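Input/output pair, single chain:
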Amino acid sequence: MYLALYRKWRPSVFEDVISQPHITTTLKNQVKAGRVAHAYLFTGSRGTGKTTCSKILAKAVNCLHPKDGNPCLECAVCKGIDDGSIMDVIEIDAASNNGVDNIRELREEAVYSPAVCKYKVYIIDETHMLSQGAFNALLKIMEEPPAHVIFILATTEVHKVPATILSRCQRYDFHRIRSEDITERLLYIASQEALTLDADAARLIARLADGGMRDALSLLDQCAAFSDHIDAETVSSAAGIAGREYLFELCDAVLAQDAAGALKVIDRLYELSIDLQQLCSELIMQFRNMMILKTVSDPGDMITILPEESERLRALAKAFPMSAVLHALAALQECLDRIGRTSGKRIELEMCMIRLCNPKLDASTDALARRLDDLEFQLKSGTFKIPAPIPADIGEPAQTAAAAVSSQENSPAEKPERKDQKPKFDSSMLKPLGCWSEILHHLSEKDKPLYGMLVDSKAYCYEEKLFIDTPNAFLGQMLKKDGCASRLLEAVQAYTGIRYRLQLKTAKEQPQADNSERTDPLAELAKRAKESGVDVHIH
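Output:
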């Protein structure tokens, strides 16, 4: 029966464990000095050697003829532990044996002396998956363990292990294995397995493994099924990273703000049964690689990409502003979080791509930063275009606001226009303030009282004047208090860069049938404040 490479080449002594000298040296010295602890905690990402070191340590403390802190691998105990015939070394998978009854059974068995070995060793893998009751049961025996028992806990999520357990263990943190060490080990194993492995292919496997030796050997095994001669093209085909043209097409669509083009690419991939959740993850890695390229001059192993795609990705990274890259990463991460909890994966991804292609539809701070960055670039490059004047039939709000200005600036008997005077004010000169809804949204979070005054209002601008059309008949009086007008103008300036002068147009009070039907101004103000989330107490 064929034995997978990661099992066949699993280290059997501490020296074979790569990139973890801070751990292997300490464990060897403890075995040599006979100062072995009763509980160890090994933590780190997958494939870094946690389970391997657990088994080596279990053999080393029980070996009949240890060699410099390592097991001899030849005595009956070492061979019995390897083939599973000795029952004094017990491996427990906490992912499937995580109940309190499983740990109670362990406690009952632990009190008995080992049958063959010096120590009875319990290796509990994926410890973080134990239930709270199981942790409590385990804590009881770890507080006062029998002298012949050693616990080795291995986990990838140490933050889920209770502090009461952590404090009773010697903790060892396994680092991600360096790419150079993985490459060197792969080339050695390939030579022993009669495989021809190119150096470039070995480096690509090492980068794809992301610091895990087991993943690297599994990928090497997969590549060996393709051909005895393994090059970079073989690795890319086996790993499924070949032919990723669609990622560049989607990025180009975002850069060109072509939402229709992006949706066509998604539709094509959907028809090919591409996993859209995986596509979202790949897009995140694509933009993450661009972020690294824009930040680090020599990224080295920080990014994983095929050599033939390197230049194209670098050119794409130069074309994208950093604000657009960060906006894409934030939006895609949020989409990935939602896409895993819904059946409408395609809709979620399509909505995300539309927001990326048109940041005006996204109210997030990342989208706003991207829009400001685009505006700054247009101003510096001289490509900024002032929108055309709004036609006279813009609608009733503009007409109402214009009428207010006319009534304030013109006397009852209008004077004839002189040639040296400015053109008479006309409603066509008014432009709606495009970012007014965003300003109101900002105020709803940062200044609720001011937001309450401006509910249902509209804003228009002409030169350096800001016209507010509002149904609130008391807005003018309220803005005069507590610096409200100043806070409003500062908020507008933060979004537009212009310090406007304020003009108001409030709704006239309608005639009432009698005094009993007239609205109480104080009650109206209190109602609006409550609608805006402000606690109101009237004295």
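The longest strand covers residues 149-155. The chain has four domains: 5-174, 179-239, 245-381, 396-407+428-509+518-531.
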